[in-house]
């Protein structure tokens, strides 16, 4: 490849990346504002200034671009949660750092929260989609490992997973209504609530 051809190829690659980013940014805005059901590909393209056919150079439809947004959130959030749980030295640390990582992520990425909040129940979305299911399975696996290591009390792991995730989802909503959201205070509250409940079982 000649120098000129390399420059042209580089410009094309940059243009493609910029176009794809523009579509993703626009899609996030539209899905957040009117939800997946009300969104059309035309709605997304109108926000980009690109030609209408450009969308299909990158995505097959709104389902694919929506899933790309959800997958991006999962790719950034789930490793953080697994990392803090793996580093936990005791039960309190396992719970507190998990909640703090979760609440901090959304406090610093309110656009991600808005997207998920507007599309709950959508396959691929907030509660029912593959990213959430994968995250819950990872939490369950981490709890099992922590139980085996003697870090977490040996209680019903499925109930524990449900209790942690359910309280996190619900308390997150309240935190995000506050200005500014305070992930540290929120994590402290959620941790004390959860740990207090578990201790009642352990002390029996």
UniProtKB/TrEMBL annotation:
Keywords: DNA-binding, Transcription, Transcription regulation. InterPro entries: DNA-bd_HTH_TetR-type_CS, Homeodomain-like_sf, HTH-type_TetR-like_transc_reg, HTH_TetR. Pfam families: TetR_N (PF00440). GO terms for molecular function: DNA-binding transcription factor activity; transcription cis-regulatory region binding. Residues 40-59 bind DNA. The keyword Metal-binding does not apply. SUPFAM superfamilies: Homeodomain-like. Residues 17-77 form the HTH tetR-type domain. PROSITE patterns: HTH_TETR_1, HTH_TETR_2. This is HTH tetR-type domain-containing protein. It comes from alpha proteobacterium IMCC14465.
């Amino acid at each position: 490849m000649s120098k000129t051809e390399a420059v042209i190829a580089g410009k094309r690659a940059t243009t493609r990346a910029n176009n794809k980013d523009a579509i993703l940014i626009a899609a996030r805005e539209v899905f957040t504002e009117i939800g997946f059901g009300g969104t059309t590909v035309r709605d997304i393209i109108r926000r980009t200034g690109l030609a209408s056919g450009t969308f299909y150079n990158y995505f097959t439809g709104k389902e694919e671009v929506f899933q790309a947004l959800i997958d991006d959130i999962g790719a950034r959030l789930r490793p953080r949660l697994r990392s803090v749980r793996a580093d936990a030295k005791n039960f309190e640390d396992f719970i507190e750092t998990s909640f703090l990582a979760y609440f901090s992520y959304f406090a610093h990425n309110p656009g991600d929260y808005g997207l998920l909040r507007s599309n709950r129940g959508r396959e691929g979305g907030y509660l029912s989609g593959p990213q959430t299911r994968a995250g819950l399975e990872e939490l369950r696996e981490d709890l099992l490992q922590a139980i085996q290591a003697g870090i977490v009390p040996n209680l019903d792991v499925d109930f524990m997973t449900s209790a942690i995730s359910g309280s996190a989802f619900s308390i997150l909503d309240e935190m995000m209504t506050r200005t500014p959201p305070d992930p540290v205070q929120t994590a402290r509250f959620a941790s004390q609530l959860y740990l207090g409940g578990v201790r009642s079982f352990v002390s029996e």
